[in-house]
Protein backbone atom coordinates (compact mmCIF):
# COMPACT_ATOMS: atom_id res chain seq x y z
CA UNK A 1 0.00 0.00 0.00
CA UNK A 2 2.83 2.44 0.78
CA UNK A 3 4.09 2.08 -2.80
CA UNK A 4 0.66 3.03 -4.07
CA UNK A 5 0.46 6.04 -1.77
CA UNK A 6 3.92 7.26 -2.83
CA UNK A 7 2.91 6.83 -6.48
CA UNK A 8 -0.31 8.75 -5.82
CA UNK A 9 1.65 11.56 -4.18
CA UNK A 10 4.09 11.69 -7.08
CA UNK A 11 1.30 11.81 -9.66
CA UNK A 12 -0.64 14.47 -7.80
CA UNK A 13 2.45 16.62 -7.23
CA UNK A 14 3.24 16.36 -10.94
CA UNK A 15 -0.06 18.01 -11.74
CA UNK A 16 1.21 21.30 -10.30
CA UNK A 17 4.91 20.74 -10.73
CA UNK A 18 5.29 22.73 -13.94
CA UNK A 19 4.73 26.09 -12.24
CA UNK A 20 8.02 27.93 -11.79
CA UNK A 21 8.46 30.53 -9.10
CA UNK A 22 11.55 32.73 -9.03
CA UNK A 23 12.76 31.89 -5.51
CA UNK A 24 15.53 29.22 -5.44
CA UNK A 25 15.79 26.01 -3.43
CA UNK A 26 12.16 25.05 -3.51
CA UNK A 27 12.64 21.32 -3.89
CA UNK A 28 14.10 18.48 -1.89
CA UNK A 29 16.95 16.45 -3.41
CA UNK A 30 14.24 13.97 -4.48
CA UNK A 31 12.46 16.74 -6.40
CA UNK A 32 9.47 17.31 -4.12
CA UNK A 33 8.31 20.88 -3.56
CA UNK A 34 9.13 22.08 -0.04
CA UNK A 35 8.21 24.88 2.35
CA UNK A 36 10.14 27.50 0.40
CA UNK A 37 7.95 26.75 -2.59
CA UNK A 38 4.82 26.98 -0.44
CA UNK A 39 5.89 30.31 1.04
CA UNK A 40 6.75 31.69 -2.43
CA UNK A 41 3.22 31.05 -3.71
CA UNK A 42 1.73 34.52 -3.90
CA UNK A 43 -1.57 34.91 -2.12
CA UNK A 44 -4.38 32.56 -1.42
CA UNK A 45 -5.36 31.94 -5.03
CA UNK A 46 -2.03 30.32 -5.93
CA UNK A 47 -2.17 28.16 -2.80
CA UNK A 48 -5.76 27.12 -3.57
CA UNK A 49 -4.66 26.20 -7.10
CA UNK A 50 -1.77 24.15 -5.75
CA UNK A 51 -3.94 22.31 -3.23
CA UNK A 52 -6.73 21.75 -5.76
CA UNK A 53 -4.26 20.19 -8.20
CA UNK A 54 -2.71 18.13 -5.44
CA UNK A 55 -6.01 16.80 -4.10
CA UNK A 56 -7.53 16.19 -7.53
CA UNK A 57 -4.40 14.37 -8.66
CA UNK A 58 -4.25 12.37 -5.46
CA UNK A 59 -7.92 11.37 -5.71
CA UNK A 60 -7.49 10.35 -9.36
CA UNK A 61 -4.41 8.30 -8.55
CA UNK A 62 -6.17 6.55 -5.66
CA UNK A 63 -9.15 5.68 -7.83
CA UNK A 64 -6.84 4.27 -10.51
CA UNK A 65 -4.77 2.32 -8.01
CA UNK A 66 -7.59 0.92 -5.90
CA UNK A 67 -10.38 0.29 -8.42
CA UNK A 68 -11.87 -3.08 -7.58
CA UNK A 69 -9.64 -3.56 -4.56
CA UNK A 70 -10.21 -3.41 -0.84
CA UNK A 71 -11.92 -0.09 -0.08
CA UNK A 72 -10.48 -0.15 3.44
CA UNK A 73 -7.02 0.60 2.01
CA UNK A 74 -8.48 3.40 -0.12
CA UNK A 75 -10.22 4.91 2.92
CA UNK A 76 -6.99 4.72 4.94
CA UNK A 77 -4.95 6.37 2.17
CA UNK A 78 -7.52 9.16 1.83
CA UNK A 79 -7.73 9.72 5.58
CA UNK A 80 -3.94 9.93 5.91
CA UNK A 81 -3.38 12.24 2.95
CA UNK A 82 -6.45 14.39 2.41
CA UNK A 83 -7.46 16.53 5.38
CA UNK A 84 -11.16 16.69 6.21
CA UNK A 85 -11.16 20.47 6.31
CA UNK A 86 -11.85 23.50 4.18
CA UNK A 87 -9.23 24.73 1.76
CA UNK A 88 -8.74 27.77 4.00
CA UNK A 89 -8.10 25.58 7.04
CA UNK A 90 -5.54 23.50 5.14
CA UNK A 91 -3.80 26.64 3.84
CA UNK A 92 -3.66 28.10 7.34
CA UNK A 93 -2.29 24.82 8.72
CA UNK A 94 0.45 24.74 6.06
CA UNK A 95 1.28 28.42 6.60
CA UNK A 96 1.63 27.70 10.31
CA UNK A 97 3.72 24.56 9.65
CA UNK A 98 6.13 26.44 7.38
CA UNK A 99 6.36 29.50 9.62
CA UNK A 100 9.07 27.55 11.48
CA UNK A 101 12.39 27.94 9.63
CA UNK A 102 13.35 24.38 10.50
CA UNK A 103 10.44 22.85 8.58
CA UNK A 104 11.17 24.57 5.26
CA UNK A 105 13.03 21.57 3.82
CA UNK A 106 10.14 19.18 4.49
CA UNK A 107 8.13 18.30 1.36
CA UNK A 108 4.66 19.78 1.02
CA UNK A 109 3.07 16.33 0.71
CA UNK A 110 4.43 15.43 4.14
CA UNK A 111 3.24 18.74 5.60
CA UNK A 112 -0.25 17.98 4.25
CA UNK A 113 -0.20 14.64 6.06
CA UNK A 114 0.80 16.39 9.28
CA UNK A 115 -1.93 18.98 8.71
CA UNK A 116 -4.49 16.19 8.21
CA UNK A 117 -3.57 14.69 11.59
CA UNK A 118 -3.61 18.03 13.38
CA UNK A 119 -6.89 19.15 11.80
CA UNK A 120 -8.46 15.81 12.76
CA UNK A 121 -7.42 16.44 16.38
CA UNK A 122 -5.16 13.40 16.50
CA UNK A 123 -2.88 13.00 19.55
CA UNK A 124 0.59 14.55 19.55
CA UNK A 125 2.29 11.14 19.44
CA UNK A 126 0.58 10.40 16.08
CA UNK A 127 1.69 13.76 14.69
CA UNK A 128 5.22 13.12 15.95
CA UNK A 129 5.19 9.67 14.32
CA UNK A 130 4.44 11.35 11.00
CA UNK A 131 7.07 14.06 11.52
CA UNK A 132 9.90 11.72 12.42
CA UNK A 133 10.33 10.20 8.92
CA UNK A 134 10.28 13.71 7.43
CA UNK A 135 12.91 14.91 9.88
CA UNK A 136 14.94 11.79 9.24
CA UNK A 137 15.02 12.39 5.49
CA UNK A 138 15.96 16.05 5.96
CA UNK A 139 18.75 15.04 8.38
CA UNK A 140 20.02 12.47 5.88
CA UNK A 141 19.95 15.01 3.03
CA UNK A 142 21.84 17.54 5.17
CA UNK A 143 24.44 14.97 6.17
CA UNK A 144 24.97 13.93 2.55
CA UNK A 145 25.36 17.52 1.45
CA UNK A 146 27.88 18.23 4.18
CA UNK A 147 29.69 14.93 3.71
CA UNK A 148 30.09 15.43 -0.02
CA UNK A 149 30.57 19.18 0.35
CA UNK A 150 28.13 19.67 -2.48
CA UNK A 151 27.67 23.07 -3.99
CA UNK A 152 26.64 22.00 -7.47
CA UNK A 153 23.18 21.87 -8.94
CA UNK A 154 21.56 18.48 -8.34
CA UNK A 155 18.37 19.29 -10.24
CA UNK A 156 16.84 22.33 -11.93
CA UNK A 157 15.73 23.91 -8.65
CA UNK A 158 17.95 22.44 -5.97
CA UNK A 159 21.40 23.52 -4.91
CA UNK A 160 22.48 21.52 -1.91
CA UNK A 161 24.21 24.13 0.23
CA UNK A 162 21.75 26.94 -0.31
CA UNK A 163 18.77 24.68 0.01
CA UNK A 164 19.59 23.95 3.60
CA UNK A 165 20.17 27.45 4.86
CA UNK A 166 20.04 27.36 8.63
CA UNK A 167 19.28 29.88 11.31
CA UNK A 168 22.26 30.64 13.61
CA UNK A 169 21.02 28.34 16.40
CA UNK A 170 20.24 25.45 14.03
CA UNK A 171 21.28 21.93 14.93
CA UNK A 172 20.99 18.87 12.69
CA UNK A 173 19.44 17.03 15.64
CA UNK A 174 16.67 19.62 16.00
CA UNK A 175 15.22 19.14 12.50
Helix and strand topology:
Layout: H1 2-14, H2 35-40, H3 43-66, H4 71-81, H5 87-97, H6 108-119, H7 124-148, H8 160-163
What does this protein look like?
This protein is mainly α and 175 residues long. It has one domain. The chain is built from eight helices and no strands. The protein has helices at residues 2-14, 35-40, 43-66, 71-81, 87-97, 108-119, 124-148, 160-163. Helix 1 packs across helix 3 (43-66), helix 5 (87-97) packs across helix 6 and helix 6 runs antiparallel to helix 7. The chain is globular. The two termini are 27 Å apart.
Brief write-up:
With 175 residues, the protein is mostly helical. It has one domain. Helices cover 61% and strands 0% of the residues.
Any key phrases for this structure?
175 residues; mainly alpha; 61% helix; disordered C terminus
What is the average per-residue confidence, as pLDDT, rounded to a whole number? 75
Percent of residues in helices comes to 55-70%
Low-confidence stretches: 10-22, 151-159, 161-175
Strand tally is 0
The 3D shape can be described as globular
- Please summarize the sheet with the most strands: none
Query: What is the H/E order?
Result: HHHHHHHH
In DSSP terms (H or I, runs of 4 or more residues), the helix count works out at 8
The N- to C-terminal Cα distance equals 27 Å
Class inferred from helices and paired strands: mainly alpha
The proportion of strand residues reads: under 5%
Number of domains: 1
Radius of gyration: 16 Å
Amino acid sequence: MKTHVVLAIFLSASAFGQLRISSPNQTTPAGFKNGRYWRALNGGQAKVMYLTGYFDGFDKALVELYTGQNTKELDTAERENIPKATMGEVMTALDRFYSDQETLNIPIWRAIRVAALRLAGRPAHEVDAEMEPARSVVRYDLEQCEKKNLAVSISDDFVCRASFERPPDYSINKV
